Amino acid sequence: MHPDTLSILCNPYNGEPLMLEDKTLVGVSSGQRFPIRKGIPSFVSVKHTPRRNRFWQWLYDRVAFAYDFVLKVGPRINYGTEQKVRQEYIANLEIESGAKILEVGVGSADNFQFLPVNCDCYGLDISWNMLLRAQRNLTTWGRSAQLFHADGQYIPFHDNTFDLVFQMAVLQHYADPFIGIREMARTTKPGAAVIVIDEVSAAQRTFKRLPAHAQFARDKASALEALPRLVPHGMRDIKAEILPSGEFYALEFRKPT
Ligand SMILES: C[S@@+](CC[C@H](N)C(=O)[O-])C[C@H]1O[C@@H](n2cnc3c(N)ncnc32)[C@H](O)[C@@H]1O
């Protein structure tokens, strides 16, 4: 872990700063301990992780070995348009040199290939095995990024840390998408952007399992219209659109200054 990183990390369960003791991060007042293994700090706690999130952690830990293969072959057999979204959307984000960027649910770090090399990349994921894939890929590509083992509903960074926080194909997995997006907004700097990209069909499924929002699951148009409801109160420039490839939407907003 980079020495400066300690100043932006916090205990995701109570917000306290952390200190480094050998290969462990320790909460300054609670004494709660988070191990660093293979250079990756691990914050996932069974006690705090909702059952649904634990299921996806379990599943991605098991499929991680085949994930890159599916990404590579998928578009060739007309299955999945993730690579198109990376080329058309992620690669065209206007990112200033030196920007600090967090990807929540980084997976095998594929999106980092499409970000400018001069930005400061951070990725977190609930699946340890996906992070190991990300670590291997980054070495192969000669890219540097810092990785963290954490639940997107408990982001282990202080408020107002990043110039951009984004995620792709992750929101559908959350037990509580409201908390997940609130965490992204909390860790974004004032004036900076939060971007959530996911499948349109997944948005329908997400609304279907939220009893107060089930009416927005009837069709893709209603789901798209309802996406801004997931954004925390007080955010500005809220925009939801279907991306040109047709399968994915992007929900964007800015934190007020
Ligand atoms: C479909 S993959 C997308 C990976 C990457 N964002 C991409 O575009 O290739 C979903 C990723 O989200 C991660 N994930 C699922 N639930 C999560 C959660 N609650 N917190 C953090 N990561 C999560 C999974 O482990 C997996 O790596």
Order of strands, widest sheet: 7-6-5-8-9-11-10
Weakly predicted, low-confidence segments = none
Radius of gyration based on Cα positions = 18 Å
Major sheet size, sense and barrel closure: 7 strands, mixed
Helical region count? 6
**Strand tally, please?**
11
Q: In what range is the share of β-strand residues?
A: 15-25%
| Ligands (ions, cofactors included) | S-adenosylmethionine
Coarse structural class:
alpha/beta
Question: What is the terminal separation in angstroms?
Answer: 30 Å
Order of helices and strands: EEEEHHEEHEEHEHHEE
CATH architecture: 3-Layer(aba) Sandwich
Please tag this protein with its features.
257 residues; alpha/beta; Rossmann fold; seven-stranded mixed β-sheet; four-stranded antiparallel β-sheet; 11 strands; globular; binds S-adenosylmethionine
